[in-house]
């Protein structure tokens, strides 16, 4: 990289250098990676991840990714570990230590602690002959690739490779555990991720909140039911089964002699419905596609279970 390069040219060179390093890491991933996964899956406690400086930031992210994908994990700061937090690390745990050089002084106490209590230690480092690598039970070696910064010193390529390797560890364990969308939802109840995994059953209205009429219900009572429940729709139910719906549109289409009719005479039969176990995003898609604002939820037998309104989906963050 030279000062004559444009910012875009510099960016492309940085990405090229880091991409080449990732390819080297992928192609050189040792078979002992399987042994590391086996070791970590057998842990009865937590996977402790630690590093200093930029490696510490990467370690914290790796621990967070593992924790959210089914592997109990925690980041421990090496400085705090030397002042009491070593007590967090037990013989039920496994430890992953990250150091590009393998000689980070601040990791010495954690290394000694793992050796003293026979705690499995995984080293992520570029130096196979370093103190960390020699002390570890398992070594995951980073490629000997140049840093992408102009002076070749700021952690760039090395941290990218470490982060990718951490993702590989987390995802491999996730898949070996059979971790599914439902499990992910349990760890991500908030935000956009949580909203994407919400089920209809988690937000739908039930019981007395549902606007329900019978086929013989007169229109005066039907209008009162629709107005009281406030969804702009009523379910035509027979023996608990959803038979039809009455919407504002049905009312407008039958204005002539409306009050002399019954709910069954103006209802739309065989209406669209959805399973309570369906994703809320799927329900929103159905409502948007068919330009309706509410959708009744029924079980496999056609029994009415609830109602989801488009506002429920939007309030939950599904869009």
Automatic annotation (TrEMBL):
A GO molecular-function term, please? carbohydrate derivative binding
Question: Could you say which residues bind Zn(2+) here?
Answer: 77
- UniProt domain CBS: residue ranges: 204-261, 267-319
GO BP annotations listed: carbohydrate derivative metabolic process; carbohydrate metabolic process
- The superkingdom listed in its UniProt entry is Bacteria
Q: Where is this site: Catalytically relevant?
A: 54, 106, 147, 188
Keyword Transit peptide present in the record's keywords: the answer is no
User: What UniProt keywords are attached to this protein's entry?
Assistant: CBS domain, Isomerase, Metal-binding, Repeat, Zinc
Occurrences of domain SIS (ranges): 36-179
Q: Which InterPro entries match?
A: CBS_dom (IPR000644), CBS_dom_sf (IPR046342), GutQ/KpsF_isomerases (IPR050986), KdsD/KpsF-type (IPR004800), SIS_dom (IPR001347), SIS_dom_sf (IPR046348), SIS_Kpsf (IPR035474)
Record flagged with keyword Protein transport: no
As recorded in UniProt, its EC number(s) are 5.3.1.13
The record's family statement is: Belongs to the SIS family. GutQ/KpsF subfamily.
Q: What is this protein called?
A: Arabinose 5-phosphate isomerase KdsD
Name the gene for this chain.
kdsD
């Amino acid at each position: 990289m030279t000062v004559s390069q444009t910012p875009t040219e510099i960016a492309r060179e940085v990405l090229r250098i880091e991409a080449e390093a990732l390819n080297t890491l992928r192609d050189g991933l040792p078979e002992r990676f399987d042994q590391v996964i086996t070791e970590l899956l057998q842990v009865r406690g937590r996977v402790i991840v630690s590093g200093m400086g930029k490696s510490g930031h990467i370690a914290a992210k790796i621990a967070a990714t593992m924790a959210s994908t089914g592997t109990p994990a925690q980041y421990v700061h090496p400085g705090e570990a030397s002042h009491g937090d070593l007590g967090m690390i037990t013989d039920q745990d496994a430890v992953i230590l990250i150091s590009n050089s393998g000689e980070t002084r601040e990791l010495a106490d954690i290394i000694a602690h793992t050796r003293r209590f026979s705690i499995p230690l995984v080293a992520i480092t570029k130096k196979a002959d370093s103190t960390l690598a020699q002390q570890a039970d398992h070594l995951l070696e980073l490629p000997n690739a140049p840093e992408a910064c102009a002076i070749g010193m700021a952690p760039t390529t090395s941290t990218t490779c470490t982060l990718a390797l951490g993702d590989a560890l987390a995802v491999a364990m996730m898949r070996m555990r059979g971790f599914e969308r439902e499990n992910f939802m349990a760890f991500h109840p908030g935000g956009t991720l949580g909203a994407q995994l919400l089920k209809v059953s988690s937000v739908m209205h039930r019981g007395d909140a549902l606007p329900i009429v019978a086929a013989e219900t007169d229109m005066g009572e039907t209008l009162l039911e629709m107005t009281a429940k406030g969804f702009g729709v009523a379910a035509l139910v027979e023996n608990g089964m959803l038979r039809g719906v009455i919407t504002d549109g049905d009312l407008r289409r039958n204005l002539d002699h409306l009050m002399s009719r019954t709910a069954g005479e103006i209802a739309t039969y065989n209406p669209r419905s959805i399973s309570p176990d369906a994703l809320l995003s799927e329900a929103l898609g159905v409502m948007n596609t068919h330009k309706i604002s509410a959708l009744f939820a029924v079980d496999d037998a056609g029994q009415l279970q609830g109602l989801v309104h488009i506002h429920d989906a939007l309030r939950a963050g599904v869009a």
